[in-house]
Amino acid sequence: MIPASLPVSARPTQPAASENGKLRVLVVDDDPIYRETSRMFLMMQGRDVTLAENGTAGLRKLGEAHFDILIVDMEMPDMTGLEVIAKVRARPETADLPIIMVTSRDDAMAIDRAYELGASSFVVKPVNWTLLDHYLRFVCRAARNETLARQAQKQAELLGQTKDNLMSVLRHEMKTPLNAIIGFTRLAAEARESGDLVAMREHLEAVQESGKRLLQSFADMSTYSDILSGRVVPAREPIAPGWLFDDMQELHGPALAKAGIRIERREDVGNLRFEGDQTLLASALSRLVQNVLEHAKGATTVTLTAAREGEGLKLIVEDDGEGMQSEDIARCLEPFAQADMSLSRPQQGLGMGLPIANGIMALHGGGLEAENVPDSGLRIALRLPVGR
Questions:
Q1: If you average pLDDT over residues 275-291, what whole number do you get?
Q2: Which domains does the chain have, with CATH numbers?
């Protein structure tokens, strides 16, 4: 599965503090006296302290709750502090967690190794508790600043790539219909002068189609901008999945039939109703069906499926065409990108269908996933929390 995503404002990966405003500290040490002493001194400084007697217990607690900082002992019987640091850094959810290593020996090689594995700082036993609390604040502040800097850089890279994609697509999508409008307008004028009304009508219809294409491109850019800026607020109304499928058959049925593609429906959700904006969700689903119509080579069937998934709902659009390469799927989930980004590509459009659909799902607390189906075509799932 390749999850799609929208640009978001930079924010720390780990929560900055617990709901009561206290810094959440996990202390991992096999010495019971040190553990209790650390709890007492850190709580005196207003910290929210959790204890773990060894590395295994510490890793388990990290998987059960969020912490702002980890203090881990170097020498423990089940696994060393270095092993704990390596495992913590290997987990995506704790990859940026600040870590202070505590050691009872002045071992430069071990300290260097700890930094290589991702430790943020270290202290030596016996611990100066007042200084340790200053360490906590400094390390947490430095970690938050580093996270924000990385996210800002990632955001800048994403915006830069989006700009490049936009300019590449606009060169193709604006130039082609504008040239068509200019050319067919001239031809229509010549046909009028010669009295060939049939040719003039054909040329004017071509002008109209080019204008519609331009208008759709601007509408897609406006829609995506509105979604990103928060100007779109979904309605909360009861919806049945079958209602959305009815909309698809009415909207796309004739064009699909003309292309030799039949619609199949599978609705195994009973009388399920969920809250959402039917117009927006129909728009998201419509873009997926339109994607089949325009890009699914060799497709003869498009299947619309509504299925429960745990406490959620999946609306699936699946075709039996040739499918796409995984890297092409990932590219199509980016705004203003297409599987073929060359200026000679035959496909029309800004490549905004999937990003806009994903944006609509994000507004509903859901998401979009796309994958190739073995011996079949492309499957795109819209995921919704039924609780909404």
A1: 91
A2: 2-150 (3.40.50.2300), 162-229 (1.10.287), 237-385 (3.30.565.10)
